[in-house]
Amino acid sequence: MTSSQPKRFLLAPLAIGALIGVAACGSEPPPPLPGVTAFTGATVWDGTGSAAVENAVMVVDHGRIAAVGPVDEVEVPPGAAVEDLAGKTVVPGFINAHAHASDVMGLETGHYTRENLIRQLGLYARYGVTSVASLGGDGPEAAQLRDEQDDSLDRARIWIAGEVISSGTPEEAAESVARSLALPADFLKMRVDTNLGANERVSSETIEKVMELGREAGKMVTTHIFYLDDAKEVLRLGSGLIAHSVRDQPVDEEFLELMKEKDVCYVPTLVREISTYVYAEVPEFFDDPFFLKDADPAVLEQLQDPERMERVANSSSAQGYREHYPIAMANAKAVADAGVTIAFGTDTGPAGRFQGYFEHIEAGEMAEAGLTAEQILMSATGDAAACLALEGVGTLAAGNWADFIVLNESPLEDIANLRSIDRVVVAGNTVPGSGAE
Prior knowledge:
By secondary structure, the chain is an alpha/beta fold. It has helices at residues 13-24, 114-126, 140-147, 170-182, 204-217, 228-237, 253-262, 270-277, 289-292, 297-303, 306-313, 316-337, 357-369, 373-379, 382-388; strands spanning 36-40, 43-44, 56-61, 64-70, 81-84, 89-92, 94-99, 129-134, 157-160, 164-165, 188-191, 221-224, 241-242, 265-266, 404-407, 421-426, 429-430.
């Protein structure tokens, strides 16, 4: 669009009526437009892969983006509230394609309540994660919160998978799927792994049954894997998302071709591996103010208990995951280089996997693995939304929800600048505790 063309914006009927009133009043100041805000002056990277737009205008009308673009193409509606973001960078809020909003509080389980879910979703949002795909352990409370998401929302959005299917006969798996569909779940979750030999692997017959039921219900089956051979099997049987890294050996051409042929996305969850062994010592991030602002001192004290640290240090499981971590890192790069779409995810939510903060560790680890800042940003925005078929999120486009992060520094220059949060906005509302309010 050239500067000679009319400036554009879209407004709800209420706002249009207010503009008609302005015309009738002649030169009088326009009346305010309730629910309409123009964010001006920022550099906006919209999550589509297009170049960032400097000095942009984004008009938000009752929680959704009405228009976004350069200042000479998008008009600030008369009467709209105006927020000057000059010098800031705006990116879409992050989507976590593998998270958990669960029953964990501190290091304890057994707290699956509406209040605890809201607490976790608020924590995610304060760190810039504005949408989470909760892949397992989900109940009616989460389904209700999902269904209540409207233009008053000021916490992370949630989508759910219901139960995790990890064992049992095909008939038992079918019963689990039925319970998840009754919520209703947005997708399904299956665990295909032996937990480093500690558990029995789910049978191929059960995997096939779950994939069949997913197809019949029109639900994507997301799959937890560890081994390359398991990943290939679930791809052949119909998995719609590989929800962890392949960690036993380097990915091969057959796997990469299967991923591209089936158009399936790959979620590295690198920080999940770190979480299994990092508490053998006192982690460096325990001194990070960005972490400490939301950390519970009592939980940090528990994690630093000498007996607990010794158990982690002596855990064969923890050391096994540590040993395989370099393979996970190398495979993330290999998958990206092959042109397979990566969806950002962390598997945060279980005890010791700190929601919100660990997403920033994940971004740093992806950079360490060799992904560019733009690849990481795409994986957590437009690509994650496409991988999970989530509507209304992931990109800053007209009609989508106004979920975005306002940053003091550009993450396109350095992914660590994601920590320079000025504020986080969900449905046009500043998330409490995220910065300026």
